[in-house]
Give the backbone structure.
Amino acid sequence: MNKYPKRTTYYLLVVLLVMLGGQNIAWSQIKVLPHYASRALKQSQQNANINRAQFRTQQTTLALPFFEDFASAQKTDTIWQKNVGVYVNNTLGINAPTVNVASFDGVDGNGVPYDLSSNLAQGGADTLVSCPIDLSSLTAGDNIYLSFAWQAEGLGELPDTDDSLQLQFKDVTGAWVSVWSQMGGDSLLNLGADYTKAFKTEIFPVTDANFLHASFQFRFIAFARISGNYDTWNLDDVFLDRNRSATDLFRNDIALSQAPNSLLKRYNAMPLNQYLANTAGETADNITAKAFNLNAPGSGFALFNYDVTLEDTISKTVITTLNDQPIGDFFPAATSKDMTATFDPTLLDPFRNSGGVALKYRFRSFLDITNRNNIDANDTVSRVTVLTDYYAYDDGSAEFLAGVNQNRGQVAYRYVVNEPDSLTDVQMYITRLNKDLSGQTFIFKVWTSKNGKPDSVLTQKILSIANVYAPGINQFVSIKAALEQAQDRFIPLAIQDTVFVGWQQTSDDFLAIGLDKNTDSSDEIYFNLSGEWVQNTDTLGSLMVRPVFGQVDVTGVESPRLDPTLVSVYPNPTKAATLHIEGLALYQVKIVSLQGQVVKTIGLNNTRSKKYALDINDLSPGTYLLHCLDKQGRGVAKRVVILK
């Protein structure tokens, strides 16, 4: 079944639910869409130098063996002649054999779809080509084989029936010959295992005389939907050498794969003071990384050693070694083993009065305990947990985007503080998806909690989406800074326990918020699309929305907002030269463009009547924000559309 019928069936299902009066229709839930831009430049947690754009075109001729597990940027840069769009990362693979995988999909090296002329465009997509390899002195008797491990989807998007990943060899005439192809969709169901969550190893002979020449090359190429980040394939553990056999699917190595878990139970980052207020409740029982013994069963080494070091990357202080196993542990071949360490919160006593710490814990595996410096790139993994001034469920990388596409729809994200604190800002990762919403607005909101759900509004601010679009991939924007750009302000809020932060739509267009699929805080997400708050029950991931806290005195500060229901602006939209405001005693009105420019400031004197007439004859047609302030500096924002 191709994509078009599949999408048609989905549409008909939605229509059927509407006709039957169903309330749980697809568009009324939180939508999750691929984030193709983030794949272009998002950096691996293990090696910040690896990404799509850093492969160079090479003309070097190589000799056997050829080995690539994508763990080292320096090595990767010298053995591939050409990379078109392939993204090396450690976030999209599930249970990968080693640190980092090479991911293929439907966008180029800059994260841009190969073809936007049609939403269903299909064709050749990401391609990875080896440097030339000299096989001219070898014969079929040398038993040359190429092996590799692949996975469909992982944490990306599932390839459909018409999609494929192909392996091709270059023969002596320079022609590319296909030697293997794996189709997506239903073809993945007939392989005896779920290779969307596991990797499958393939091996092929390179013994045909047409391939035994001085400039032999091989390449992997994906055929996919090329209008976005669709149809993901992950590649790892590519090995070409002589004296192999068709059953040689193992190698003499121990490799580390996924990054360790956070040392926090609930979060990936939190304010230092909030952590210290409840270390027992916030500290994970163990920090764990996984090692794989890639030897064949019954062969290879069985002793395994590792250590775990801890340092603060802010002060560049090495704190301690959390765990050290110098004796060696039995580790059977073809199995995996958890490496664990525990974190003692008292290690942070010297940092209690600092501005915070960024704790990097590094796992290293080694065989020779007398030489711990001779360690391969795939023998080290690390992670950083930040304890400064903000909370984060996410790990800083967006694999997908999430949001609602319904006017007045609301999304709220729950955070719980361990001691009273002041909310001073919120950081969000908001990016473009299919359509630029720079000419539109949304409402940033903060709610109190009642019975575990969002309740009364603590503050709400109308913001131009243009002012909160991320300047780069996975870069957060400060709501406080965006308000200041619009001549408004974020007044600190006293938080005693639970707080919800989020947004409300002002149109049906999808406001795209970064979604991290490597962590999961789905049950902390609530949405309101019909007047009632509903806790999310789908497994989504973690929204990239981060509240910032600080020790700010908010005692005696009046409510930072006026009740917007008590202020009326009319006519709206308007073609008239005069705009009317009434309802509250106001001192000043600032008219701000959606680009954040104050185009007009009007002082108000008639505070007793609570009715005001504003001359807007000099304003150009467009959408504006009216920031209405009283003498105490309390404000309310209203959106007005001038037509003329």
About this structure: The mean pLDDT is 84. The CA atoms of residues 217 and 233 lie 21 Å apart. Helices lie at 3-19, 38-41, 73-79, 272-276, 279-282, 479-485. Residues 400-550 form a domain with the Jelly Rolls fold (CATH 2.60.120).
